[in-house]
Every structure is written in structure tokens, then in C-alpha cells.
Amino acid sequence: MAQERAWQGGTDGTSWMHRSLVHIVRHVPLRLIYGFVAVFVIPFYFAFSKGYKPMYHYYTKRLGRRPLKAFFGVYHNFCRFSQVILDRFYMFSGGKFDVEVENYHLYQELAEQDPGFMILSAHVGCYELAGYTLVATKKRFNALAFGEEAEAIVENRQRLFENTNIRIIPVKNDLSHLFLINDALDNGESVSFPSDRLVGKQRTVTCDFLAAPARFPMGPFALAAQRDLPVLTVNVMKASAKRYKVYVNRLQKEGETRNDRINAYVRQYVGHLEEVLREYPEQWFNYYEFWDE
After folding, report:
1. Using DSSP, how many helices (H) and how many strands (E) does the chain show?
2. N or C: which end of the chain has fewer CB within 10 A?
3. How far apart are alpha carbons 293 and 217 in whole angstroms?
4. Which residues pair with 3 in a beta bridge?
5. What confidence tens digit (pLDDT) does each residue in 241-289 have?
6. Is 63 helix (H, G, I), strand (E, B) or coil?
């Protein structure tokens, strides 16, 4: 989490840097910027980032890699995360990526129906790209956003979204976002929830993830079980410098009781998350000790 704040920022002091990045990626080839960051910026994070240790444990304990291979795996992860952040600014500058959507029909079917539906995302790849890709003309796409972001990021995102059917719902301490979520679902819209990170004192549900117990926020899964609405998982993974692949999957309602349905949703969600991480292990971007063991 500290790693993300360092890249994305949330204070006025970093806004100038973000505006500068938008200008740079507009005029400098993206691959050249990737190379500069990998050589001159990432080593700094190796020396000072608190994210190194949990990522090293991710590679050694969860993926079973030897120490030297895990070391280079963390470096690759840091590089990939920096590329994803730069890609956001590239989009802000007007840049385009080639995007392939797997199972797009699952999203289209729900977007054309009257009832609302839920989308569960994770801190892998570049989920923000989904907002520019899964744009339904009939149904508004609402996305929850946690934490403060720099003014330049907010401004550029608003500019890109102004001609789309997309709304950002900021999560606030006064819980006003809960009313917006319920209103959106009642109005037959879609709402996207990041579902792999705990924020504050949330109720949790434990599920085996990459062969070890891990805690997930109960809220999105409980809401899905309570409202009995269709649920999708969407993961947007960086496949190459200018290409992304979007994985869309439908979660099935299983179980007689509410708790049974919650646990079933979590298991399915985790299963789809494991599938993309097996193919893109370097795109896991939770920089803290995620697993209970």
C-alpha cells in the first residue's frame, strides 16, 4: 500500500509530477520510459520500499521460488507495477492500448438487462482500464475508489470519463458511499468493488488462496448474497507493452444459507484470481503481508 502511495501520490506536492508525467508520456515512447524507470528508479525502491519483504514472501512461500529467483521476481514485479502506473498516465495523455476481452458476452448480456449487477475486481494488472473498455450505453458503470489521489489523477480521469457512462464513487468515512451503491443497484446499474484488500476494521472471510489461508473483506460478497444479483469478476492484465487482456467470469449462486453463498462466492472469486496469477504472477500488487501464515 505504501508502494502505491509512493507512485500515485495523494498530496499537492506530487501533483506537479503527475502533470509532468502526462506531458512526458505524450511525447516520449512508452518503451523508452519503461527502460529508464527499470534502470534508474526501481533500484531505489529495492533499497527503501517496505513492499520488498512481502513480495519476496509471495514468491518464496506462495509460488515456491528459490531465493535468487524470488529476488529477480520482486524486481520484475516492481517494474511491472511501474509500467501499469505509467500506462494510466499514457491513457490520460490520450494514448490507446490494444485490448482483448475474454468472455465479453457475459458482460454484454448483463449490461443489456434491467437488473443491476456487481463486478468484483482485485489489485492485479490495471483494473482502471476496464472502465474505458466495458462501457455499456444502457447501464451506468459505477466504480468504488479508496483513498485520496493526487489532483492531476482525478482531473485526468474525470476528463476521460466525461463522455462515458462511468461514475467514480469515493469511499468516505461518513459512509455516504453506501447510499450511492444501493441507489445504483436499485436503479439497475453496475457497481464495481475491489474485493481483495482490507481497509479499516472490516468483517472478513477466510479462504485458501495460493494454498494458504488469507482474509478477504466480507462486504462485497455479503452484499452479493443478500441482494441476489448477478456477479462478475473482471481482471485486466498487462500482456505486453501496448496490449492488455481482460478476463470476465460469472460467479454462480451456490448454497442454501447466506453464509454458504458468501463462502461460495469467495471461493469462486479466489479461483479466478489464482488463474490469472498463474499466468501473470508478476502482476500481484498488494504490498503487505497478505497471508495469515
Report:
1. 12, 9
2. C
3. 18
4. none
5. 999 999 999 999 999 899 999 999 999 999 999 999 999 999 999 999 9
6. coil
